[in-house]
Specification:
The chain is of the alpha/beta class. The protein folds into two domains: 161 residues, Rossmann fold, CATH 3.40.50.720; 153 residues, Dihydrodipicolinate Reductase, domain 2. The chain is built from twelve helices and 13 strands. The relative contact order is 0.15. The structure holds NADPH dihydro-nicotinamide-adenine-dinucleotide phosphate and N-acetyl-L-glutamyl 5-phosphate (X2W). NADPH dihydro-nicotinamide-adenine-dinucleotide phosphate binds next to helix 1 and helix 12.
């Protein structure tokens, strides 16, 4: 068994990693690190994990506790993995923070508004979207797993850009996320009273995921995220001017025909289809009246948008079955 350490195990993504790894045939959780949670029992933060990790407590960060671990997952706030990466050494490392996702320190500083402390290490990370970078991930020691919104939007758009059926200028991504996308610590905008029965846009014109979507798709993107009154899920609806009549559904179906976690179908997908799984559900249409293409993706932000994708990357890096430990079926209703 591969022994894994999780940094940020007390957070929402950390909890989802622990849940999925509890049923993984080739990877065991060896260490679960917290920050303010250090020393406290795992079930105090993740009661749903009581049977799997009932007698566990979160560790305080201490790099010597990585001894004996072959693999490290980090689900920390942005900026934190830059400080820890040296301690991880040459272990396999899957980082979900944004620190090493973008190609340049300048892009990171532009969109995240803070200085990048380790630009020297940017090129040592591979962007962890397996459907587009599988061979590079297999050869990598360090992977920067994508953000949740960019995963959904890029899966919907990239094959259409590559097929040349959409214009790459002014692509519109309207996406809605469940509240778990904002993490475990509630803020004024994510408490029940602010979210229940409500629907709102935020981050207009400046959401940091715009940079990632542009990097992956090669298109110029205008992205508007929305907060939806649900725990999990992302629905990304993407619009682009067509270069002419095409069959975008057939293009997506062909692009993902061999992909174990991507389903392309006629019916507009719903977030619940993906809930609890590592699946992505896609559809697309060409509209002759407006000469526009619309492409839609539904994922679980904690699944294919976070923990599931991290495990998919780790499976590839370790030469395990890519689907090991990862559900392809969602929880419904
Ligand atoms: N939630 C989602 O759907 C997605 C999240 N992400 C990204 O993944 C990362 C984790 O997200 P999420 O789990 O939602 O966040 P949470 O806020 O739920 O969890 C954050 C985790 O980081 C730990 N932590 C906080 N500050 C520090 C610090 N200074 N040093 C070390 N550890 C610290 C927390 O520890 P403690 O609680 O013990 O203080 C906790 O375990 C973020 O970068 C997020 O942007 C990416 C894709 C999707
Ligand atoms: C609903 C909600 O607040 N979502 C978060 C997305 C968090 C996330 O995925 O952040 P990174 O991918 O950059 O790590 C947001 O919009 O900031």
């Amino acid at each position: 068994m591969i022994r894994a350490a999780i940094l940020g195990a007390s957070g929402y993504v950390g909890g989802e990693l622990m849940r999925l790894l509890a049923a993984h045939p080739g990877i065991d959780v060896a260490r679960a690190f917290g920050a303010s949670a250090a020393g406290k029992p795992v079930p105090a933060f993740h009661p749903h994990l009581s049977l799997a990790y009932g007698d566990w407590a979160f560790d305080a960060w201490d790099e010597s506790l990585l001894d004996g671990c072959d693999l490290v997952f980090a689900a920390l706030p942005h900026g934190e993995s830059q400080k820890l990466v040296d301690a991880i050494g040459d272990r396999k490392f899957v980082d979900l923070g944004a620190d090493f996702r973008l190609d340049t320190a300048e892009e990171y500083e532009l969109w995240y508004g803070e200085k990048h402390e380790r630009p020297d290490l940017l090129s040592s990370f591979v962007y962890g979207l397996p459907e587009f970078r599988r061979a590079d991930i297999a050869a990598a020691n360090r992977v920067a797993a994508p953000g949740c919104y960019p995963t959904a939007a890029s899966l919907a758009l990239k094959p259409l850009v590559e097929a040349g059926v959409i214009e790459t200028k002014g692509v519109i991504v309207d996406a809605a996320s469940g509240v778990s996308g904002a993490g475990r610590i509630p803020s004024h905008g994510t408490i029940y009273g602010a979210v229940e029965g409500n629907f709102k846009a935020y981050g207009l014109l400046k959401h940091r995921h715009t940079a990632e979507m542009q990097m992956v798709t090669g298109a110029e993107v205008i992205f508007t995220p929305h907060l939806a009154p649900m725990s999990r899920g992302i629905l990304a609806t993407c619009y682009a001017r067509a270069t002419g009549p095409s069959d975008p559904l057939a293009i997506l179906a062909e692009a993902y025909a061999a992909e174990p976690f991507v389903y392309v179908g006629q019916t507009p997908p719903e977030t619940k289809w993906a809930s609890g799984s590592n699946a992505a559900f896609l559809t697309a249409r060409y509209d002759q009246r407006t000469n526009m293409v619309v492409a839609i993706a539904a994922i679980d932000n904690l699944g294919k948008g976070a923990a599931g994708q991290m495990i998919q990357c780790a499976n590839i890096m370790l030469g395990l079955d890519e689907t090991a430990g990862l559900p392809i079926a969602g929880v419904y209703p």
